[in-house]
Write a structure and sequence with these properties.
Helix content: 25-40%
Largest sheet: 4 strands, mixed
Strand content: 5-15%
Structural class: alpha/beta
CATH architecture of the largest domain: 3-Layer(aba) Sandwich
Bound molecules: pyridoxal-5'-phosphate
Number of helices: 13
CATH superfamily of the largest domain: Type I PLP-dependent aspartate aminotransferase-like (Major domain)
Length: 403
């Protein structure tokens, strides 16, 4: 194989539109090289318009946005915050930043996101004082917040999750870091709860190299988020401070990148959904591999990452690890599904409500290369390796059976 046909294929790499440098030059020309400026204001307005939400604050990261959202809900050391176990660690860490106790909820198989039934079980156990904390069982009280995640772009079952949250009056912060542009019942992910979080990290569907946003229908949350993200400086000519603040604002230079990226978001979604269709038509001819589909027409995924479940008992013994290894050999990056938080050493001993769904997804799941910049030639290179690994072992099995 020559070099050009073996160029590395990444799982999900930045995909510039070409217009970013123009916005960056604007920032330089106007000398707004600061965490303030016209690109920030414009990026916030455009994000609001795109998502049909009233208010937004662009920040240094999605993690910062999550941290601020929990601060705004007054989460503190004696509180419980519920989040889904199957997620990237950044969904859970801000709970610990505030000294609160995370409680982990299993996934439902249809979306891989928070299971509404286990959510309610966890809430009832919070009320009973049945939750593990650092110092034994914690107090009997309602959780302070629920953080559902729209993992890999797939919307969570927001209708049922909100039903449970509203029944007990618990605020909801959606971790929509991976799902900008996804919708549930035609409404943007991130705009169902009290607040929503987006990320513009390098591998997300659009990027500002690093960055994030907090959105809300409620102005007071976003006003306060902007205040806390700029060191909580009071309105006085001298530097007056009455509470702890943070340096979490996005740079005006990066907001310029965001403006250019947002212009092509719909094209990026289209490209990623196209990747998914390419994989789907391939896997239709393969036994023992399931691709995660949208459960119904209510769900529209941005298809940030195409994910599959690999069942060796049904496909002649091929595991997700075998596929990952075969791809890696051809210089193609794939990745296991996020390791559930309740299996992480960091969160050992935390309460978990579930029935093995997230464990099975972790055990059998795989994320396939899903960048919006993949060419058809690259997609074919990937499916060719998949075909080889999935048919080779079967052929070997047949030989063994015959002999
Ligand atoms: C990327 C990500 C975050 C964190 O966003 P950063 O901008 O990287 O801080 C949070 N939650 C999930 C599910 C993510 O994938």
């Amino acid at each position: 194989m020559n070099n050009s046909s073996n160029i590395k294929i990444w799982l999900s790499s930045p995909h510039m539109s070409g217009k970013e440098m123009g916005y960056i030059e604007d920032a330089f020309k106007s000398n707004w090289i600061a965490p303030a400026g016209p690109h920030i204001d414009a990026f916030e307005r455009e994000l609001c318009t795109y998502n049909s939400v009233g208010h937004s604050a662009v920040l240094s990261s999605g993690t910062a946005a999550l941290h601020l959202s929990l601060l705004l809900l007054d989460v503190g050391p004696d509180d419980y915050v519920l989040t889904q176990s199957l997620t990237f660690v950044a969904s859970a860490n801000p709970i610990k930043y505030l000294g609160a106790t995370p409680v982990f909820i299993d996934s439902e198989a249809s979306t891989w996101n928070m299971c509404p039934e286990h959510l309610e079980m966890a809430i009832l156990d919070c009320l009973k004082g049945n939750i593990n904390t650092k110092s034994g069982k914690g107090p009997s009280k309602l959780p302070k917040a629920i953080i559902p995640v729209h993992l890999f772009g797939m919307p969570a079952n927001m209708e049922e999750i909100l039903k449970v949250a509203n029944k007990y009056g618990i605020p909801v912060v959606e971790d929509a870091a991976e799902s900008l542009g996804s919708t549930y019942k035609r409404k943007a992910c991130g705009t169902f709860g009290d607040m929503g979080v987006f990320s513009f990290n390098g591998n997300k569907i659009i990027t500002t190299s690093s960055g994030g946003a907090l959105v809300s229908h409620q102005e007071q949350f976003i006003t306060k988020a902007k205040f806390l993200s700029t060191q909580a400086k009071e309105a006085a000519v001298y530097y007056q401070h009455e509470e702890i603040g943070y340096n979490y604002r996005m740079s005006n230079v990066l907001a310029g990148i965001g403006l250019a990226q947002l212009e092509v978001l719909d094209a990026r979604i289209w490209a990623r959904r196209n990747n998914f269709e390419h994989y789907r038509s391939f896997f239709q001819q393969v036994e023992g591999v399931n691709i995660l589909e949208e459960p119904s027409a209510d769900y529209f995924s941005n298809r940030w990452l195409t994910t599959i479940m690999v069942y060796p008992e049904l496909n002649g013994g091929i595991t997700n690890g075998d596929i990952m290894e075969a791809l890696a050999k051809e210089n193609i990056e794939s990745r296991p599904v996020w390791k559930p938080m309740h299996l992480q050493p960091l969160y050992r001993g935390c309460s978990f409500y579930g029935q093995g769904v997230s464990e099975e997804i972790f055990d059998k799941g795989l994320c396939l290369p899903s960048g919006s910049n993949l060419s058809l030639i690259e997609l074919n290179r990937i499916t060719q390796v998949l075909e080889e690994v999935l048919t080779k072992r079967k052929a070997a099995d047949k030989v063994r059976i015959a002999s």
